[in-house]
Design brief:
mainly alpha; Phenylalanyl-tRNA Synthetase, Chain B, domain 1; 2 domains; 2 strands; about 110 residues; two-stranded antiparallel sheet; single chain
């Protein structure tokens, strides 16, 4: 289930707005009712529960993609290692760097 921040962010983007901590704040009272919008000062209407719910699928997709990209970022060799691979590939006619990047991508597919 997508979190409220992701869904609110998608609502804002759909309305040509960007997240601004001075215009929206989310809160959770630890009362098992979950997160809610505590304050809203954008020049567009605060989203209704139905509008927020409509972003569930898109929110799940966005969060899954973020997870994949974070996993890839930690799996890639450092930029120094990648530069060294590229240099050695140029000298030796090998594809070490290309193969390393392809493996990270195949191990962490976007879909």
């Amino acid at each position: 289930m997508a979190n409220l921040k992701t869904k609110v962010n998608l609502y804002l983007k759909a309305n040509s707005k960007t997240w601004d901590n001075t215009k929206v704040s989310l809160q959770n009272n630890s009362d098992n009712n979950g997160d809610f919008i505590a304050s809203w000062t954008y020049d567009i209407a605060e989203p209704t529960d139905t509008q927020i719910a409509s972003y569930e699928t898109a929110g799940n997709t966005a969060e899954a993609l973020k997870t994949v990209l974070n996993n890839r970022a930690t799996a890639y060799p450092t930029w120094q290692e990648q530069m060294d691979m590229q240099y050695k590939d140029l000298l030796n006619g090998t594809t070490t760097w290309k193969d390393a990047v392809a493996k990270v991508k195949s191990d962490n597919p976007k879909e």
